[in-house]
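pasting for the record
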Amino acid sequence: MLGLRTTAYIVKDLAQAKAWYTKAFKTEPYFDESFYVGFNIQGYELGLLPEGNETNLKGENVLSYWGVEDIQKELERLIELGATIHEKPINVGGELLVCSVKDPWSNIIGLIYNPYFKLPE
């Protein structure tokens, strides 16, 4: 196993989602096609997939957490952009804090402040 590479969100309107995620993650997509929009977030892939004709259920059984330096500040910023609170910030041990929001398409975006986790150099 090489570790996580991509988190993909399914959205109803790819153009609106691309604009929203560009603001939310403060970066432009590096890959932009009608079937997929990809963002490079500090070396990790955030992907947007358009909904198909079938109904795709938005599950809460898997959460991806994006690392942040200030969880409250990022939570407030995402709320200002139109996200809604899924889980308020909670301490999960030591200095670890997590929370999550739902984007305008009901996808869950997790945030984590984890001063203990370091990427290998």
